[in-house]
Specification:
Catalyzes the hydrolytic deamination of guanine, producing xanthine and ammonia. It comes from Aromatoleum bremense. Keywords: Hydrolase, Metal-binding, Zinc. By secondary structure, the protein is α/β, with parallel strands linked by helices. The chain is about 40% helix and about 25% strand. The protein is built from 17 helices and 16 strands. The strands form two sheets. Strands 5, 6, 7, 8, 9, 10, 11, 12 and 13 form a nine-stranded parallel beta sheet that branches. The chain has a seven-stranded mixed beta sheet with strand order 3-2-1-4-14-15-16. Strand 2 and strand 3 form a beta hairpin. The longest helix has 17 residues, at about 110-125. The relative contact order is 0.15.
């Protein structure tokens, strides 16, 4: 990415967490101009003030009448499960057996992996998502395919090879030392290359032996800057299973901590059935939660307690969790997050919702110094939202009197149709036809 570019529109981003800063967390420029130089944010302010200062011939993308926000950040998604979205009728353990494992078997074929990765990255961009933390499969070629597709589009992608050496089909099981060696090779090949980052990826504690869990923890410790991603306390039956497999552990979370997998840049999806001791340990170690409301509802897993996580100081991002999750859309994910909190007797203010989808997600990934906002020097990833994308959305927006009302209408009524454009490093990566 090179040169100078500017984006004009109704620009919104967050300076911090609304839960801490209140109204001061949000910066809003109703007719704003975002200046991008060499892919990074070089300036932001009122368009009438900044336009006269631009050099002649500067490209200006004019999105007046539309909202411009930092690109959405999906902190938990399975690219290999793209083809099983909307598969009927199971909870998580049966879902794995019936749908996930047979589907992931196909990723032994590099051509299939590449085809799905291409679609997956395009679908993320079509929904305004510019950064994702994704599971591949046990096959190294599945990781290669995803990173190659993301690199071609200049996306920021965190991904890794799934580690499983027990309680899974033979066709997806690899020995602990084999998975370790393949992970090391993938780290060497991809971690830190352009905008790509590697995540050590034990699927979840039940599908790894203690030997593999120990090796995963060592990989995490021995390669500075890599991530670790897994699942935690999604389903009550799953929690009971872990207790039988690891009777020495105080809790499901304690299993991961015993094997050195808890710390900064470790991200655990779901965390529905954890207690205050677990939350305190996550906060103290800097581990993060990926809140996945659409899959928690679809798979009948339970209702995540966002308020208790917030009170404990746990880092939280949002995850679509496709394919247990039902949409690539972060707007639809926010829609379901709001409803989950209602069912818990809690509130999700619209400002905090969009914070979690942008700067909050970046913070949970320790990337808020690079993405998630329009602070000077950040990578200029952005999404353009059209408040008149559908007749109902246009009608509701027309009577909105505040920015919060307009954002809430997008959060509840919006989906992929509301995404007018997605830019990566300032450059258009997708535009609605």
């Amino acid at each position: 990415m090179s040169g100078l570019r500017a984006i004009r529109g109704d620009i919104v981003h967050f300076l911090g967490d609304p839960a801490d800063l209140g109204a001061d967390a949000l910066a809003h420029f109703p007719d704003g101009l975002l200046i991008v130089r060499d892919g990074l944010v070089a300036g932001l302010g009122p368009a009438p003030d900044l336009l006269p200062k631009l050099p002649a011939g500067t490209t200006v993308d004019d999105y007046r009448g539309k909202l411009v926000l930092p690109g959405f950040i999906d902190t938990h998604i399975h690219y290999a499960q793209t083809d099983i979205v909307a598969s009927y009728g199971e909870q998580v353990l049966a879902w794995l057996e019936k749908y996930t494992y047979p589907t992931e078997r196909r990723f032994a074929d590099p051509a299939h992996a590449a085809a799905v990765a291409e679609f997956f990255c395009d679908e993320l961009l079509r929904n305004g998502t510019t950064t994702a933390m994704a599971f591949a499969t046990v096959h190294p070629a599945s990781v290669d395919a995803l990173f190659a597709a993301a690199r071609k589009r200049h996306m920021r992608m965190i991904a890794g090879k799934v580690l499983m050496d027990r309680n899974c089909p033979d066709f997806l099981r690899d020995p602990a030392d084999g998975g370790d060696a393949e992970s090391k090779a993938l780290i060497e090949r991809w971690h830190g290359r352009d905008r790509l980052l590697y995540a050590v990826t034990p699927r979840f504690a039940p599908t790894s032996t203690p030997a593999q869990m120990a090796l995963a923890g060592r990989l995490f410790a021995d390669h500075p800057g890599v991530y670790l991603q897994s699942h935690l306390a999604e389903n009550e039956r799953e929690v009971a299973w872990v207790a039988r497999l690891y009777p020495e552990a105080r809790s499901y979370l304690d299993v991961y901590e015993r094997y050195g997998q808890l710390g900064a840049r470790s991200v655990f999806a779901h965390c529905v059935w954890i207690d205050d001791t677990d939350r305190a340990r996550m906060s103290a170690t800097g581990a993060a939660v990926s809140f996945c409301p659409t899959s928690n509802l679809f798979l009948g897993s339970g209702l995540f307690d966002l308020d208790r996580a917030q009170a404990a100081g746990v880092r939280v991002g949002l995850g679509t969790d496709v394919g247990g999750g039902t949409s690539f859309s972060m707007l639809q994910t926010l829609n379901e997050a709001y409803k989950v909190q209602q069912l818990r007797g809690q509130r999700l203010p619209v400002e905090r919702g969009f914070y979690l989808a942008t700067r909050g997600g970046a913070r949970s990934l320790y990337l808020d110094d690079r993405i998630g906002s329009f602070d000077t020097g950040r990578e200029a990833d952005l999404v353009v939202l059209d408040p008149a994308a559908t007749p109902l959305l246009a009608r509701r927006t027309a009577v909105a009197t505040t920015l919060a009302e307009r954002l809430f209408a997008l959060m509840l009524l919006g989906d992929d149709r509301a995404v007018a454009a997605t830019h990566i490093l300032g450059e258009p990566a997708w535009r609605r036809p």
